[in-house]
Amino acid sequence: MNAFIGNFIDLFTESAPYLLMGLLLAGVIRQLIPDSWINKTLGKDSSVITAALIGTPLPLCSCSVIPAAMGIRRAGASKASTASFMVATPETGVDSVGVTLALMGPVMAIARPIAAITSAIVAGLLVRRFDVETPSKQEPVKSCCKGHHQGAPEGVMGKAISVVQYGYGKLLKDFMGWLLIGLFFAALIQTFVPATLLSQYGNGVWAMILVILVSIPMYICATASTPIAAGLMLSGISPGAALVFMLAGPATNIATLMVVKNELGVRSLVAYLTGVVVTALLMGLGFDFFLEYFEITIAVSHGEHGDMSSLLYSASAVVLACLIAYQYAKQLKSKIKTQSAIAS
User: Fold this and answer.
1) In terms of residue numbers, what domain contains 253?
2) Count of Cβ atoms closer than 10 Å to residue 132 Cβ
3) 106-158 pLDDT, tens digit each
4) Is the pTM of this model over 0.85?
């Protein structure tokens, strides 16, 4: 039990700074980027390729992409574009590509973003093909959200307040429950699944399927998945299976999947998951074949993830915990108030 609690706290601490950054970015998107631009760029008639290319270089992990994607969806992005953005962004970024280059060399560093963009495009196309576009859960734009509306706060301070109110208020409240559920299952996996399980199967399609099954409940960002994948390769799994882990892990955790279901619907969720899983498998098998055919060897350097006990991570975790506790306290107070009104 102590190990489970420790793993949960570590995961929460690791996610906290990236999540706070994502919430801030979502607030900035809502406040500063016109809905008309998002509609034009990522709306119904936009290309999922555009969304994938926009999301690929952004240094947002699987936790911070959730509020960012919710922000663009509620500002007018289509289901397909949102799905494409949600796949491309956490699977790779300029930071994770740099870590991949350092630990696994240039071949893997090139293959990873190519595979991520392909996965994002396939997922977006499947969502567009098998689901029907519907209006987003876009709350009415109030004066606190857009500075040019009548009665809205003006100036830099007013806009900053609007960013904070939307990102750390409305958006956090909408998905914090699924975030905690995702971290719960990720902690279970870390606590009870042996670290040697994946390395026992080495390579081939069954190893990659096992990687995906383990990755779905795991809550991990693209950068953090890189040294883990390097360690798995050192212990015996193939480069293709490692690539599958780096693709599926950041894009298919439970919190992300539940947000996709809530924001885009069940059919989009099935299409999203199918696109990520099938593309990851094909990319992994194709990458192993490519390396074998051209007799290329991936040299792996062992690396360690950043210190999760650092002041930045710890302070971010405290701030995030306080924000979540505040939102739950507000909900509890509202329920008590409602029940009192009914009783009276």
Assistant:
1) 2-343
2) 9
3) 999 899 999 999 999 999 999 999 999 888 765 544 433 343 343 445 577 88
4) no
